[in-house]
TrEMBL record:
The lineage of its organism: Bacteria, Bacillati, Bacillota, Clostridia, Lachnospirales. Keywords: Isomerase. It comes from Kineothrix sedimenti. InterPro entries: Xyl_isomerase-like_sf, Xyl_isomerase-like_TIM-brl. Residues 27-268 form the Xylose isomerase-like TIM barrel domain. GO terms for molecular function: isomerase activity. This is Sugar phosphate isomerase/epimerase.
Length: 295
């Protein structure tokens, strides 16, 4: 099993590149990093953005850590993106994701990952509109794959979310979406989040991580790991009591044949939590996972 770290915990806290890279290497024992757009916004002016990208890239390289991928954070998830109700909004989103691909390539990462967006109240309740927006989203993703190939990235990973207003949101729609995207210029794969896959209010009996992993295995490119209770999308660290155990992680990863897929811990903390509290939780969590997962 491969354990990685999404830098979501660092947002608005540990934002000095050298400090963060050293923390990830020396204190968290991390070899694989998923960089969050909450640290560098793809919309930022190209010249200034590239200065920051270079600082982060060189800081992590100096510590011998690979930035495997970049991923959309809280800020980009706020918007309707490729499932927005108007073409103007969707075109803006398309431009945004192209800039995210630029960021990914300039960071030296191989993979750009993101949710695709969310539908409006009315569109989500209209089957014709749902189908239309689904097809529009597929077209945009294919164009983004074309652009990604041009820029030199290797894959795009789409996150399955725990909302019926978004695509994909269950194993069936996830698999169908991957089939509908076959033949894209670069592979488009799934990112499965433990907390999303175990969200009982939406998924009911399908809130089963082994079901998700086994059925979606051929299409999974990366995984988000978190602690949760199955009642909300918690993104807790592993100092919290939850339903995800090291034994479960090891069991389902092995049985699904996903040992070679990186599982990035993605912890999202309350802004009100102190920096010391966040650091302590991350340190205890990473020590715990390394020990209990034998990695």
């Amino acid at each position: 099993m491969l354990l990685g770290l999404n830098l979501s915990f660092a947002t608005k806290r540990f934002i000095e590149p050298k400090q963060l890279a050293a923390m990830c290497k020396s204190e968290f024992g991390v070899k694989h990093i998923q960089f969050t757009w909450d640290l560098i916004d793809p919309w930022w002016p190209h010249e200034q953005r590239n200065i920051l990208i270079k600082e982060y890239r060189e800081a992590f390289e100096a510590e011998g850590i690979k930035i495997d991928a970049t991923f959309g954070g809280l800020a980009s998830y706020t918007y309707a993106q490729l499932l927005a109700p108007t073409e103007v909004q969707r075109e803006i989103s398309f431009t945004f994701f192209k800039r995210a691909i630029d960021l990914t390539a300039e960071m030296g990462a191989d993979v750009m990952g993101t949710p695709v967006g969310g539908m409006s109240f009315d569109d989500a309740r209209d089957n014709n509109r749902r189908n239309y927006l689904y097809q529009e989203m597929l077209k945009y993703l294919r164009k983004l794959a074309d652009y990604g190939k041009e820029k030199g990235i290797k894959e795009i990973h789409i996150e399955a979310t725990p909302l019926t207003t978004e695509f994909p949101h269950d194993p069936e729609t996830s698999i169908q979406m991957m089939k509908d995207l076959e033949g894209s210029a670069i592979p488009i794969k799934l990112l499965i989040d433990w907390g999303h896959a175990l969200y009982k209010p939406l998924l009911k009996e399908k809130a089963d991580i082994l079901l998700w992993f086994k059925e979606c295995a051929p299409y999974i490119g990366s995984i988000h790991l978190q602690q949760t209770d199955g009642e909300m999308d918690r993104h807790w660290d592993f100092t919290a009591d939850g339903i995800i155990t090291p034994e479960l992680i090891k069991k389902v990863t092995k049985e699904s044949g996903l040992d070679n897929i990186t599982q990035y811990l993605e912890v999202v903390t309350a802004f009100e939590s102190t920096d010391d509290e966040v650091y302590a939780g991350m340190k205890k969590t990473m020590d715990y996972l390394h020990k209990e997962l034998n990695i």
